Amino acid sequence: METLRVSSVPSLQIPSKFDKTQSKKLTFLGFNQSPSSSFSLVQRHKATFKASSIAVDTETPSAPEAETHTQDDKFDWYAHWYPLMPVCDLDKRVPHAKKVLGIDVVVWWDKNESAWKVFEDACPHRLAPLSEGRIDQWGRLQCVYHGWCFNGSGDCKFIPQAPKDGPPIHTSKRACVGAYPSTVQNGMVWFWPSSDPQYKDILAEKKPPYIPEIDDPSYASLMGNREIPYGYEVLIENLMDPAHVPYAHYGIMQTRQPKEKADREGGRPLDLHIRKLDINGFIAEQNPGHSRFLPPCVFCVSIFSPIDHINGAAASSPGTEKLSNEKLSSPQKGQKEALLIFICVPVSPGNSRLIWTFPRNFGVWIDRIVPRWIFHVGQNLILDSDLYLLHIEERKIMDVGPTQWQKACFVPTKSDALVVGFRKWLNKYAGGQVDWRGKFTGALPPTPPKEQLLDRYRSHVLNCSSCNSAHKALGVLEVVLQVVSFCLLGIVAAIKQGVLSSMVARTALVATALLCFAGSKWLAHFIYKNFHFHDYNHALV
User: Fold this and answer.
1) Contact 79, 71 (CB under 8 A)
2) Coil, strand or helix: which one is 435?
3) 3-state class of 131 per DSSP?
4) What DSSP string runs through 258-271?
5) Which range is least confidently modeled, 41-50, 218-227, 373-382?
6) pLDDT at 449 over 70
7) Are the C-beta atoms of residues 301 and 2 closer than 8 Å to each other?
8) CA 499/CA 417 separation, integer angstroms
9) Residue 8: pLDDT band by 50, 70, 90 thresholds?
């Protein structure tokens, strides 16, 4: 699942071979990070952090000089921006319920300020979910339980039950709903996970990670999203593990094959190593390509080019370097550049959200003529093919305890370097797991039936504007084909022999009716398999 692509979709294919000179010339992407939490790769580090040595002694990892930290370094899960959804998948007409870090929020479009707003998903009156409400004719968010209305700042503007000639109780602070700082960047709605007024202007001090290639019109960068029924930690380490691709996604993804195959799938040794690891994540080399983990959410892979310099969320307050919208360097004319960008969002124990986009500067025309849902069909199949494995794996990890991961898992090869690096970062800087701040007991939700676990409709289709529209359109087409089929058969049966005496005409109508009926049945199967449930039996592939 390191690359959510399908071999049948040309725009997402990744060549197994590429020019070495091209690899040296291409540049990955430009993030912008605050001076206190960024690190530059302009100066290359010779020390490396290798998985093979860790497997021998997990308590004393190799190359400690590649890590920079102090005893006071501790990653604060609530001092970072989190993405909620791609803007392209949000309907401005309705409020949307989302959960991040166990926090229930409602995302809605404030037409008065022309901005996306993020509120606590609870009306201050009786705590009914505002996400089940509506946006009224004045552009206010209305709770449909008792009709209380709120503006874009969270202030209550109308309480129907309050007498008009009585005290203005709607102005009370207790009538206000908590509003989170929010912004739109790289085509996604981001929010700061604290509604405390002290963070009202946090955007001026710290911005979300910015990836210029996503906004570059010379790049194709279609987005997708899916609710994942396993946790944030397992999601990220799976995306960091290219060695599982030829096995878990066999027959779905095209992978680089060795000259001599040792098995059917063509698995091979992978030379992965981490060049630098600190509280701000790590940078890794994987042949081919380079990658960076920018906590808490962003994992990027460069297919062709080395990462020379990447920054994350930048400070733009007076006297500091402002956020740059330009890439630090661009590929020369004719050179290819492709990125895999995975944004992993912790939702709750045993649940996460994945937002992905694959910016590239070649084959851009394909994305302009092929509907987005076509790409999502293949990408969801990739997610499904190892989803059940990871769901069960997470429960086994919880049985032994997340802090015992390195002792329970035997990771002796370099192909596990990024996974080991992520677990090392998680244990050393982030407390070993997501900080839920006491919202949960730590227990995972029960495992549902496989059909429910792999249900694409609720996990993706309902949250994707393209797939939702395609699902509705194909459903209508299915019904139309059935109606046409029965109408044609009815015509043949109703018309007298003399009126429709030609055997050829009668045969043609019957044949057309049968074709329409068969087409409706095929379409029903296609809809179910691609928009609802598609099992993947590894033993029979």
Assistant:
1) no
2) coil
3) helix
4) PSS-SSSS------
5) 41-50
6) yes
7) yes
8) 78
9) very low
